[in-house]
Amino acid sequence: MFRYFLKRTLAVIPTILIVSVFVFMFVRFIPGDPARRVAGPDATLEDVENIRETLGLNKSIPEQYKDYMLGLMKGDMGTSLKTQRPVTYEIGQRYMNTVRLTVVSLLWSVIAGVLIGVFSGKNRSKWQDYTGMTLAVSGISVPSFWLGLMLISVFAVNLKWFPTVGSEGLKSLVLPSITLGASVAAIIARFTRSSIIEILKEDYIRTARAKGLRENKVVWKHVFRNSMIAVVTVVGLQFGFLLGGSVVTESVFAFPGLGSLLIDSVNFRDYPMIQSLILIFSLHFVVINLVIDLLYAGLNPEIQMQ
Amino acid sequence: MKKVENKNILEIKDLHTYFYTDNGIVKAVDGVDINLKEGSTLGIVGESGSGKSVTALSVMNLLEGTKGKIVKGEILLDGKDIVNISKEEKRKLKGSQIGMIFQEPMTSLNPVLKIGDQIMEGLLQHSDMSKQEAKEKTIKILEQISIPRADKIINEYPFQLSGGMRQRIMIAMALVCNPKILIADEPTTALDVTIQAQILELILELKKIIGMSIMFITHDLGVVAEVCDEVVVMYCGRVVESGDVFTIFEDPQHPYTKGLLESIPKLGVEVERLDSIPGNVPNPKFMPKGCKFEPRCKYSMDICKEEEPPFFTFDNEHKSRCWLCKKEYGGEL
Question: What is this protein's function (chain A) (predicted)?
Answer without folding.
Answer: Part of the ABC transporter complex GsiABCD involved in glutathione import. Probably responsible for the translocation of the substrate across the membrane.
